[in-house]
Amino acid sequence: MKLAAVDIGSNAIRLQITNVTHYEGKVTFKKLEYLRFPLRLGMDVFHVQKISDKNRRKFVKLMKAFKLLIDLYEVDDYMVCATSAMRESTNGKDIVEEVRQDVGLKIQVIDGNREAELINLALWSYIDEKSYLHIDVGGGSTELNIYINKEKVASKSFKIGSVRALDDNIPLSVWNSMNKFISENITKKDKITCIGTGGNINKIFELSKPSKSKRFLDFSKIEEIQAYIASFSYEDRINKLNLNPDRADVIIPASKIYLAAMAAASSKKMIVPDVGLKDGLMNVLYERNKIKK
Q: Which domain holds residue 7?
């Protein structure tokens, strides 16, 4: 069984095609294709509330390319989900309809809570009876989920994202709202471990040169890597640190969001599991096709 997931984010758009096999009672997910295209829809939307004609044309071309790959791999089922940039764009619905008619792909524009739910599907193996704050930082929004004793006790989406924060134009009231949400749902007796998802925390983790067996970052290590990256110019981040151009500028504001949430939770440790929305989509696809069979 072949499945495809497309994550239309504010900073980039991702396609993953996975082959699912059953052998001797074991289910195996093998990645066949993964593509990340740096189309920054959020830069349009967070400044002028709509996707520009230029980016609209590029987006439709990209969807055509993804549709060709989905067809070539003879995918059995797929899901395409768009997050904050598309849902906040005044012409988002028109673009979704254009892709449906001209390309043949159905795009679901999901809200922050649904986005968090989908990502959480890929996190369950990391959740136990302890207390956790899951922080997912995207280009346009940050989703927070609090788990205590394997139960989600609170969840909320905030308009705080790495692209949105590039110009430091996030109102103080939004930051205060995020801090208030954390303080109201975490007591002082809760010893919180954070779980960080998103491309920027994965890159920070990679730059920390971790041991192969542990996927943890300390608060102080994130601060250290943040300062290290900030010591380079934008051009040097690309050429010396080997960051993608669309990662080199947003990684600093993204790190500030992770650190702010950790500080509000008085958490000193973060798990970095390297999962995201596309992995949650794969879970949904597998479950609904398993039922069919």
A: 2-112+278-292
Residues 98 and 175 in one domain: no
Does residue 293 register a pLDDT over 60? no
In the sheet where 107-109 sits, what is the strand order? Answer: 26-37, 13-23, 2-8, 77-82, 107-109
Whether residues 22 and 140 fall in one domain: no
Do both 96 and 174 map to the same domain? no
CB 245 within 8 A of CB 39: no
| Average pLDDT of span 183-198 | 88
Which pTM value belongs to this model?
A: 0.89
Of 278, 270, 206, the residue nearest 243 (C-alpha)? 206
- Give the separation between CA 146 and CA 167, rounded to whole angstroms: 29
The predicted-structure confidence for 239-272, as pLDDT tens digits, reads as follows 999 999 999 999 999 999 999 999 999 999 999 9
Here the contacts of 53-58 (C-beta below 8 Å, separation 24 or greater) are 56/91, 56/95
Q: Give 58-87 pLDDT, tens digit per residue.
A: 999 999 999 999 999 999 999 999 999 999
Residue 175: what residue type? W
Nearest to 77 by CA among 155, 19, 156: 19
| 72 and 134 share one domain | no
CA atoms within 13 A on the CB side of 241: 26
pLDDT score at 167: 79
135 with 247, same domain?
yes
Q: Within the chain, where are the H helices?
A: 41-48, 53-72, 84-88, 92-102, 112-121, 172-185, 199-207, 219-230, 234-239, 245-248, 251-264, 277-292
Characterize the bridge pairing of strands 13-23 and 26-37. Answer: antiparallel
**Residue 47 · residue 139 · CB < 8 Å:** no
Give mean pLDDT, residues 124-136: 89
